[in-house]
Amino acid sequence: MPSERARVLITVKASPEPSKTYGDTVCVAGVRLHDDGSVSWVRIYPVAFRHLDSELQFKKFEVIEVDLTRSTKDARAESYRPNWETLSRQKQGDKFKTYPMDARGHVLDQLIGPTMCDLRAGVEADLNAQSLGLAEVRELKSLRFEDHGPWTDEQVASMTAAMSQPDLFGEIDTTPVLITPRYKVHYDYRCMNPDCKGHKPRILDMELSALQHHYRFRSDDELKAIITKKFHTEVWNEKVRTYFFVGNFGDIVKRKNFSVLGVYRPQRESDYRATLF
Ligand SMILES: [Zn+2]
Fold it and tell me: What is the 80 CA–ligand 1 centroid distance (Å)?
């Protein structure tokens, strides 16, 4: 498969999941910025993000350049495999540069499209239909928490086996083994479809995993309050418009299930579609 050079505005990094090959991997999604000014969704997978050199650990809302190859195992149009040896990140002084807020808004407002109900209906009609989207939220109910529980024996065995394999240079991966978060957290919301009966997706956002890890010694109630503030109060209030970055699963059996991978919440009065760059 030929590779192609892509400029990608990174919009979401999903929660890390155990992997047989890499220990653990994440799914990264973003927006391809084409030379003619058009934009399109892209999914970059697999990404052994925690195991990348720190110089390669790009941040959300950076624009990266990387060679991508169409995924042979995944027929969804947005799915590509990355070649990290070709990664280039933009620096400004000593720091890696993130895309300015107005420019982000200009790109993302163009991608606000099908409602969550429409995306689901699309996949019901064609398993390879649009698999990433930015779905507007009409009503957001309280978060739902569920105990995460331990990894399965199979997951633990594959993580341990993958990480004890020496790499090409004979070195063993010393990244700490991925620990489980305390909670699985679900949204409960209605999209803009007037007939929407509601959606209850799991939040699979790396920031949720990171937050739970950072506050892992807090009590259950304290941790729930911290998560609620960041994933509910700050995303659903009179000051902002609220959209979920949604994506479905590669597994054909689960293909109709979309998770929330992140939140886009511009100021309520903003309208970036009219902005020229
Ligand atoms: Zn809906």
Answer: 28
135 CA to middle of ligand 1, Å?
Answer: 9
Q: Compute how many other C-beta atoms are within 10 angstroms of the C-beta atom of residue 28.
A: 24
Express each pLDDT in 152-167 by its tens digit. 999 998 888 888 877 7
CATH number of the domain bearing residue 20: 2.40.50.140
Q: Are residues 127 and 217 in the same domain?
A: yes
Distance from the CA of 75 to the center of ligand 1, in angstroms?
25
Ligand 1 centroid–CA 117 distance in Å is 4
Report the domain count for the chain: 2
Ligand 1 center to 11 CA (angstroms)? 22
Asked if the structure places residue 115 within a domain, the reply is yes
**Residue 223 parent element (H or E):** helix 220-228
- CA 259 to centroid of ligand 1, rounded, Å: 13
**DSSP letter (8 states) at residue 230:** I
Nearest to 204 by CA among 29, 8, 51, 5: 29
Q: Name residues whose C-beta falls within 8 Å of residue 59's C-beta, 6 or more positions apart in sequence.
A: 10, 96, 98
pLDDT in tens, 213-237: 999 999 999 999 999 999 999 999 9
**Secondary structure E strands in the chain:** 3-13, 17-19, 23-33, 39-47, 63-70, 79-89, 91-92, 95-96, 132-140, 144-147, 183-186, 189-191, 243-248, 258-264
Residues with CB under 5 A from ligand 1 (ion): 116-117, 191, 193, 196
